Structure formats: C-alpha cells, structure tokens
Amino acid sequence: MPHFDLVTLIKAVGTLGVAAIVFTESGLLIGLFLPGDSLLFTAGFLASQGYLDIRWLVPLCFIAAVAGDSAGYAFGYRVGRSLFNREDSRVFKRKHLERAEAFFEKHGGKAIVLARFLPIVRTCTPIVAGMGKMHYPRFLAFNVLGGFLWAVGVTMAGYFLGSMIPDVDRYLIPIVLFIILVSIAPSAIHVWRENGAEITAHVRRRLARTPGR
C-alpha cells in the first residue's frame, strides 16, 4: 500500500480504526495481507504530528495485538487440523498455514514473539499454536511479550522519529518503504531458501525459450 494511501487511511479511520486493523491482522485469516508494520510506524509518525493521540494509540494497539493473537489461538484450538483440509481461496492459502506450522515447530514458544515481525506468519502462528493445543497461559505470556515489542516498539519508533527529525515528513516515503522492505525481508529469505533452486530452474527454462537466445 503506497504511503500516501496509508496516511489517508489512518487519518480516515483514526485510533480505533488502526487498533481494529491490528486486531484483524494479528489473528484472523482475513487479515493476512494488511500492512501491520508500516501501519503502526506511520500511525506513530502521524501521532508525532498531532493527528492521533499517542496516549491512546499505543495502549489500544497493544491490547488489539494481544486480543487478535488470542482470537487466532481460540480459532485454531476450536477447528483443529481440519483447517488444513480447506481449499485455497483468494484469502486463504494452505501454504501460509504450513509455513507457520514449520516456523512454530522450529522455534517453539518463542515463535509467538518472532512471528510478530513476519508478515503472514504473524497471522497464522497463533492459529497453529491453538491447533497444537499449546497451554494457553504459556501462549499468553509469549503473546503479551510479542505484542508489546511489536505494537508498542514499532509505533513508538515512528513517534520518536517524527518528533526528533526536523521536516521528517519530507522523508516519510523512503522511511516507510524501508520499513516495508525490512518487514518482508525475512519472508523473502525463507522463500528463497525453500524454493531457490526451483525458482532459478524456472527462470532458466523461461530464458531458454526466449526467441533470439
């Protein structure tokens, strides 16, 4: 989402709207492709410029992040592994769930914290934790820690940057683009590690069929 659309969206929905988006992206499958990291950072920046109240923005986003993950956990706990039998749709892709499960199996409880900073995995991991019947108090402890580091940390980073750098609005485009790149980099690296050879082979086949080569 272009930064100017994001700014317009945040100004339109306000603090409660931002919190609602955070809740949706944190644990509901329909929130898979919402702009969590850049949303929080830009909301923090706009708060530094007086468009939002940081005193409400930070706690509401934190609560929304924790509640969203808990909703995802409850959903996964209830439906169990039957979700893996669901057909792919425009919103749901089974590969995203499988990727989150592999991430969870590799990192255990700390995956709840780490996943906060990985788009798509962030949404699916609490669902996978619920499917695996992870003890809820343990899940909640990691959930609260991850929610604090992500929702509070990213929002306050945008707020302090907006407060400290003169005319920072002139640099908002590259800053938001940088945040987006940083947020998707781990996912891109993971995809390349898992499918790099296949992608390279596919590109080579396409090039070999290109006329004139």
From TrEMBL:
Source species: Thermalbibacter longus
Transmembrane parts of this sequence: 12-34, 54-76, 140-165, 171-192
Keywords of the record: Cell membrane, Membrane, Transmembrane, Transmembrane helix
GO cellular component, one term: plasma membrane
Superkingdom to which the source organism belongs: Bacteria
Protein's membrane topology: Multi-pass membrane protein
InterPro entries per record: DedA-like (IPR032818), VTT_dom (IPR032816)
Protein name: VTT domain-containing protein
Family (UniProt): Belongs to the DedA family.
Limits of the VTT domain: 34-159
PANTHER family: INNER MEMBRANE PROTEIN DEDA-RELATED, TRANSMEMBRANE PROTEIN
Keyword Transmembrane helix part of the UniProt annotation: yes
Location within or outside the cell: Cell membrane
Entry keyword Zinc-finger: no
